[in-house]
Amino acid sequence: MKKVTQKFFLLFLFSGIIMGYSPQKNNKESDNLVTQKIQKSIDSCFAIGGGTVHIPKGKYISGSLVLKSNVKLFLAKGAILQGSNDYHDYQNDAFIYAKDAENISIEGEGIIDGVDCFNPNGEENFRGPHCIRFLDCKNLIIRGVQIQQSANWAINCRYCSNGIVKNVSIRGGHDGLHTRFCKDFKVSNCDFRTGDDAFAGNDNQNFEIKDCKINTSCNGFRMGGENIKVSQCTLWGPGEYQHKSQKRNNMLAAFVYFSPADEHPKLISKNWQLKDIKVSNVDNFYVYNFKNGLWQTGKPLSTIIFENIEAKGLERAFEIDGGNDKKTQITIKNSQFSFREGLKKVSGSFEGAKHKSNAFVNASNYDFIDFKNVQFEKNGKVEKLSKKSKGVLKILE
Fold this sequence. Notes:
Helix content: under 10%
Shape: elongated
Largest sheet: 31 strands, mixed
Strand content: over 45%
Radius of gyration: 22 Å
Number of strands: 33
Structural class: mainly beta
């Protein structure tokens, strides 16, 4: 990004308007928006080759904003960029939007508040705009900010490359970081506590996700792609924020495969490495159902390695069905999985697909599962494995 500083520009435009700004309760919200003033600052920075649009401490209510190449949107500590609660004030299905842009960033210690904007014409007849939506962008940074009450996904990236998401916290809303057909992303030191999937997306390449805290009322990771590394992460349930449409808080799975056929995925998912991960009070640790799983039947999973996993408070550890592919290779080493104490009844299905049995581990239609120093514990029974398994597998029924 070009090193052009334009902090003064936004402050000048907002002089006497934003400082100490407080909307009148009796006016329509649209009458209090500062959308045009923020957008004019972004456009002016872009026109001179780039720079920083600085939003100082205070609360600013806005409709859709379009971020452009070489522009940084910086939210100072104490700044709240709050979305309008009127869905008519949004375009491009987004609060902050960018398309075909490069060298863009959203940074600072401020808050982006999607106010759970209700849209009767939106997804599920209530979801409003995504908080951040980037399409066909490259060299993007989202760092330091908190995203709360997103009316749909907090961060939605599609066909983007070279992304950094760091020190970002998400509270409530729906999906956290949802990426499709993206590559070369690094996500670190984030804290996602969402109502829907924390991480989601398909056909992603070269992702590194580490040192993250993850809590959700859906799935920690619902992802597909190649060269995906997840390390030093902590996942726990139940969700602090309710799943809005299903009205529940249990965390369904730490990891579930994602390759939706209707997205026409191109990649066979391979070279997944999940290492140094702690999981607690989640219904399932890992689910892969290429035969008839929800949004899992596009392209198959090839290779995945689990290492140094400590997962406790589970209903099930693994539910695997490779369908007709039968080529999936799974390695599990130096890991422990334990059943949820006191749980008397377990779910007989996952997202509509029936489990083959009540076993702690169910697996079929795969090439091999290689166990290396792995322990499973359920209702006082312990099974330790160091072997390579082929064929139908049931552990601790």
